[in-house]
Amino acid sequence: MKKLILILIIAVNLVLPAEYTMSGVLKSFYATETGRDHEFLIEYNRFQLKTEAYSENLHGLFVVDLLHDLINHKEVISLREAWVEYFGSSFSIKLGRQHVVWGKVDGYFVNDIVNPLDLSYFLLQDFDDIRTPVNILKGKIYKGNSSFEFIAIPEFKSSLIPTSGKWSIFSVQLPPMFQNFKILDIVPENNLNSVGVGGRFSAFLLGTDLSLIFLRKMEYTPVMRINMADSLIMKTYPWFTFYGLSFSRPLGTLVLRGEGGYYKQRYFTTVDLSPAKSPFYQFCIGFDYELLTNFNISMQYIEEGITDYSPKIIQNEKRRISTSFLNYKFAEETIKPGVILLYNLEDESFMSGLNLELDMVDNLNIVVGGFIFNGERDSFFGKFDSNDNVFLKVKYYF
Amino acid sequence: MRVLRIFTILVFGFAIAIPQTGREIMEKVDKQNKYKTLKAKSMMILINKRGQKRERTVVRFEKDYKQGEVDKKTLVVFKYPKDVRGTALLIWSYNDPSKDDDRWLYLPALKRVRRIAGKSKSEYFMGTDFSYDDLSGRSLDEDKFELMGKETIDGVEYFKIEAIPLEKEPTYSKRIVWVLPEKWVVKRVDYFDKNGNLLKRMLCDSLKNVNGRWVFTRLQMNNFQKKHKTVIEITDINYDKPLDDNVFTVSMLESGRIILLEK
Asked: What is the DSSP letter of B192?
């Protein structure tokens, strides 16, 4: 890791004789529960300083991130993004800590699975903060309206999935016989054997944007396994192979878009922590439509399922979610109210939000709003039933 | 006899050279404004009804294809302010008037390219008084032109032309265009909404000759219904400089490198 940063610093120094710019953003996000205690559910400040350098064929970027998270007791300085890109007339090579965005879906991750996720606050953070950059080597070849992208992921970093606290996404209830077992997190070593690889072919065909995706890498979310001999519960990160596709196409004033993916074999955590694997699929189909001038609606249907399901698997056999986003822009886009609804059709739980975005002054973005979660205690959104909140998000760009 | 011949040539020859119909005048405008590529840096000033101003800096790239299916490709990149820096709109317009534009919007905050509808209900672009349709422009075959006569504005005589859109669901019910003869540039455009009411007016000033082409470098779009206006001042304009086809691709938008294109 240190070597990579050193290489990047040298590379950016090569770029530095050219021009560079500095900019940044200060973000504050506060949410308090609407219940009796008015306890803070989200309380953090984030400062990101971005240095961009460029010359004729080189482009470099460093983003230093300072996070002060009062809920998770974190005061962290990190290099969030750090990459150098060399580009020619029909190709580019980009190396370093970066985002790779392959999805077209709003509010969910189907094909957008190259980077691990930070779900510390479920889906309430900005997507740019949820998606965590990792070291990636990316090559891209362009030819007319088509491109081919190849990636190699030499760094393993697991997703941040809270298993305790107010935003706990899942917690495995261990059978009594395993209560005294030790939990061992088997984080894969960063070596050539653990390098994930993938590719994406994109084309513009008959008015449609199309992408075909291939990805082979390790899971970012751990799968629990038992080791009876050593009395261990192991958090493992098995390999998976993924084939995906996506499209988007306008039809008059409507834009149809969708993406889907198929995991050849995916490992799942079971109630007795025995190994279980099965093919797995995910897909999403949705549309964006301009109802009236500056009044837009987006709706999506998302489905995922385990095709060869065993009742021992903790995850439900199927999940079907519908999402609706309504937003209106007025006063020259300085005031933007919006409504969001994520509804789980399987367990009838939902997450609903109302927000008002204010851009009254350049470089200052303020969002106020609230979220309601509803459903059975163990349902997808219902597990956050006590997290109904009102929030304030402020972003200052400089 | 010889004098009569010269008189005939002068009178009728001149009559042939001067466009007689609205369509012919607009063809002259189109021809005068023809270029292979365009790169223009502009400052946009957005002024609301209380007189409050907001500034935007944008760079616009255009490449004229004409031959084949594609008519023109346009890329508009926001450079300032910082909260919208890097936001970019890519438009492909087609020679076939019945074919909608293809449009993509890159949002740096999401690091994602979004396909947007080529046929929008006059949605305004990024808080300006220019709709997506205004930005992509119109080919001559998309309107029926009628010469309404001549009109004098500030002591200068202009051709006044009515442009009626031919598509079924147009953004505007009609436009009235004022054209400066001989220099063949548009001085003023009045836009009418679907009910036939005056919606907005574009007024152009500061006429300059750039590389042999006449161009107004100050445009003011006044939206009467919203009581809002957008002033565009073109600070730097270049015609026919080489622009690679790759500039106008979704891959380029996705790379986020569009922000460097001005360099």
From this structure: E
The CATH number of B10-257 is: 2.50.20.10
Quick one: CA dihedral A113, A119, A122, A123, positive or negative? negative
**Angle in degrees, CA B98, B100, B104, rounded to 5:** 170
Could you give the CA distance from residue B255 to residue A113 in angstroms, rounded to a whole number? Answer: 18
CB contact under 8 A, A250 and B109: no
Chain B touched by A75 (CB under 8 Å): no
Q: Which residues contact A46 (CB under 8 A, 6 or more apart)?
A: A25, A26, A27, A28, A29, A65, A66, A67, A68, A129
SS3 A15: helix
Q: Do A59 and B260 touch (CB under 8 A)?
A: yes
| Interface contact A294-B124, CB threshold 8 A | yes
Minimum Cα–Cα distance from A100: chain B residue: B111
Which chain A residues are closer than 8 Å to B253 by Cβ? none
Yes or no, beta carbons of A288 and B102 under 8 Å apart: no
Q: What is this structure's pTM?
A: 0.89
Distance CA A182, CA A53 (A): 48
ipTM topping 0.95: no
What are the residues whose beta carbons fall under 8 Å from the beta carbon of A71, sequence distance 6 or more? A40, A41, A42, A43, A44, A165, A166
Q: How far, in whole angstroms, is CA B11 from its chain's centroid? A: 35
Q: Which residue of B has its CA nearest to A296?
A: B123
- Angstrom distance (rounded) from CA B150 to CA B187: 13
Distance CA B21, CA B146 (A): 7
pLDDT digits (tens, 9 = 90+) for A54-104: 888 899 999 999 999 999 999 999 999 999 999 988 899 999 999 999 988
A18 backbone dihedrals φ, ψ, rounded to 5°: -85, -160
Separation CA A379–CA A357 (nearest Å): 30
B-contacting residues in A 21-40 (Cβ below 8 Å): 23
Where are the domains positioned within chain B?
10-257
